[in-house]
Amino acid sequence: MNTVSPEDVQSLIQLFDGSDWGELHLQSTDFELHLSKDGAARRGFGGGAAQPTPAEAKSAAIVPTVSAPPVAATASASADIPEGMAVVRAPNLGTFYKSPKPGTPPYVEIGQHVEADTEICLIEVMKLFTPVTAGVAGIVRQALVNDAELVEFEQPLFVIEASSK
Amino acid sequence: MTLRRLLIANRGEIALRIVRAAKAKGVETVLAASAADRDSQAAIEADRTVVIGAAPARASYLNGDLLVHTALVTQCDAVHPGYGFLSERASFAEQCEKAGLTFVGPRAETIRLVGDKLAARALAKAAGVSMVSGSEKVDTVADALQIAEGIGYPVITKASAGGGGRGMVVANSAAELEAAFDNASHEAKEAFGDGTLYLERYVQRARHVEVQVVGDGNGNILHFGERDCSLQRRYQKMVEEAPAAILSDAVRSRLHQAAIDLLSPIKYRNAGTVEFLYDEADERFYFMEVNARIQVEHPVSEEICGIDLIQLQLDVASGAPLQLTQADIKPRGHAIEVRIIAENPLNGFMPSPGRITQWLEPQGEGVRVDTAMKTGVLVPPFYDSMIGKLIVRGADRGDALARLRAALDAFVIEGISTNLELLRAIVGHPNFVDNVIDTRWSERVLLPSYLSSKGK
User: Fold this and answer.
1) HSE-up of B67 (CA within 13 Å, CB side)?
2) B54–A71: do the CB atoms touch at under 8 Å?
3) Do the Cβ atoms of B197 and B144 come closer than 8 Å?
4) pLDDT on residue B288
5) Residue B229 carries which DSSP code?
6) Distance in angstroms between the alpha carbons of the first and the last residue of chain A
7) A127-154 pLDDT tens trace
8) Fewer CB atoms inside 10 A, N or C side of chain A?
9) DSSP element (H, E) containing B28
10) Which residues neighbour B36 within 8 Å (Cβ) at sequence distance 6 or greater?
């Protein structure tokens, strides 16, 4: 498995999405792919997990074993999003929180239906917590960021399959 | 305390300059960039780049909360604000201090002090440095005559309540002041409903000179010579030189001492500049203001002194004692900087953002270009339009000028309008070559002839 194209990854994600599996882990010499239906299940996986980096932001979908430079990671993140999916992006830099308070259930779970105005996470800047809404009605398909991670401006947070009207 | 990781809260050439200076000192760099600058040269060279917000400065470079949050979350221990943006915002320095971050700048209280006009004047007064104007309000002719005696003629009367020329009279002698005072006061009262006047020293041909200093925060202040930044357009500097060739050695040392006397009592920390207005006619200088930051034109002082002022900033911010003494700093030769601006001088100096299709910068002995630009880069419309600085160094002013002329001729920027051709006209102008300019020379002499030669 020398080269893995975005199309390959997309097919894998679609297969995985349609399956009953909760997690999928694929590894070769120069490539590592981890798919999970629980955004939080990825902790401790792969290299550099102890030090949150922007490169890790899209790691719920794909983690290259060689860490990508942060800029490239941010810029290319949207390339992995399948058609028909909406991406919820960070409105500004801040710390991402999936739950309203520590120890409480997350705002949303994978597979959950949300409305456009459903609050799906919090972004904190200097103790100021701003809720982020889904912006589109549909099913939450992916959570791309781990709890308490730094997210950058416009970084993808969630993938939502928009409901057809 | 040694700095380990530095957040750079700025953009453009100064962000790149800080990244490189920090790396040279073994300090890790995190660049806080706006969305417009995520692919900038500073972003490429920084150890890490974090996109903090949208392109407009208020959503990114002017948002102190975002910057401090970024510094904390990325485990930085210091913040460098560059120039402009939040560099002289006392509240930002305070926010950094409270968050346990080292602000690479003065203490918040210092920024507040030198930023307050009256407090700064009090500093100057205590240091025995003359000021541009008498701030006191003048009630009677007798008072005016007494104050004018202290300021020295010529003086100009100004209305306390407003500007626009009303109440303004230039007096070259006590007799002229006595004759003009009541009329000026009456005119001010007619115009503004308040006849209160104050007096300023009137300088017909003023030059702008400034002293570069670095303070360690314990009262030790080093100076790195002075600069002459008289070539301005609407108070914006265009060309800066070091040293100020018009000064006699005696005046030069008094000027340096004045800057030190001003900042030493407040235990100034950081690189800083004390700006003076200089009257060539009687060789007197007058305090204008303190700039409590690294300035755009710092490279000319670096070139003649052979030091890196940004690295020194990092040293004093970390609390390290100054390794240099004044005797170690020996200015040599002459350096000139010109600011390269993305603007169209033939269209009212309109900013001209856009894609640079070709960027060929001059190289060679004594030539330095501080820029974050290269071929293919987009100059975004959101920020200041300065895109680079060309700095040359020579054995003396004539030598530096020859280099500057050659370097400007070799500079190629295509895709956007720039002021390169205007800069070439300045460097070739006999007044500039003879160094007989003043702060209003560009508006009075240069631009009328330049624009008319272009059919404007």
Assistant:
1) 34
2) no
3) yes
4) 87
5) E
6) 40
7) 999 999 999 999 999 999 999 999 999 9
8) C
9) strand B28-34
10) B55, B380, B382, B383
User: Cα–Cα distance between B10 and B42 in angstroms, integer?
Assistant: 10
For residues B16-31, give the mean pLDDT.
Answer: 98
Side-chain half-sphere of B144: how many Cα atoms within 13 Å? 29
Please tell me the distance from the alpha carbon of residue B314 to that of residue B326, in angstroms, as a whole number.
Answer: 19
Q: Mutate one of B31, B37, B41, B51 to test the A interface: name it (highest A CB count within 10 A).
A: B51
B439: left (phi over 0), alpha (psi -120 to 50) or beta: alpha
Residue B355 known to be catalytic: no
Of the partner residues A95, A125, A152, the one whose CB lies closest to the CB of residue B50: A152
Q: Are B403 and B366 in contact (CB under 8 A)?
A: yes
Between CA B150 and CA B138 the distance in angstroms is 13
Distance, in Å, from the CA atom of A72 to the CA atom of A55, rounded to the nearest integer, reads: 8
| Amino acid letter for position B187 | E
- Whether the CA torsion A106, A108, A112, A118 is positive or negative: it is positive
Taking CA–CA distances from B72, the nearest residue in chain A reads A126
Selection from B40, B14, B36 nearest residue B376 by Cα: B40
Residues of chain B with a CB closer than 8 angstroms to some CB in chain A:
34-35, 38-39, 43-44, 48-54, 59-60, 65-66, 68-70, 73-74
B52 contacts A126? CB cut-off 8 A: no
Q: Which residue of A has its CA nearest to B36?
A: A153
A92 vs chain B: nearest CA distance in angstroms? 5
Q: Please give the structure tokens belonging to residue B293.
A: 């930051």
B320 token code pair: 């390290």
> Residue B208: enclosing H or E segment and its boundaries?
strand B206-216
Distance between CA atoms of residues B154 and B131, nearest Å:
14
In this prediction, residue B456 carries a pLDDT of: 82
Statement: residue B121 has pLDDT above 90? no
ipTM higher than the 0.85 cut:
no
- In this structure, which long-range contacts are made by residues B394-400, counting pairs with CB atoms below 8 Å and at least 24 apart in sequence? B394/B333, B394/B334, B394/B335, B394/B366, B395/B333, B395/B334, B396/B333, B396/B334, B397/B241, B397/B245, B397/B334, B397/B336, B397/B435, B399/B333, B399/B334, B400/B241, B400/B333, B400/B334, B400/B335, B400/B336, B400/B366
Partners of residue A124 in chain B, C-beta under 8 Å: 69
The whole-angstrom separation of Cα B421 and Cα B443 is: 17
pTM, entire model: 0.79
Identify all chain B residues contacting A126, using CB atoms and an 8 Å cutoff. 65, 68-69
User: Omega of the bond prior to B154 within 30 degrees of 0, cis?
Assistant: yes
Categorize the per-residue pLDDT at A17 as very low, low, confident or very high, splitting at 50, 70 and 90.
confident
CA–CA dist B169, B156 (Å, integer) = 5
Mean pLDDT of A76-104: 83
Average pLDDT over residues B182-204: 85
In this structure, are residues B404 and B392 in contact, taking their beta carbons and an 8 Å threshold? yes
Q: Is B18 exposed, middle or buried (0-12, 13-18, 19+ CB in 10 A)?
A: buried
Token digits for A18?
């349609």
**Contact (Cβ atoms closer than 8 angstroms) between residue B232 and residue B266:** no
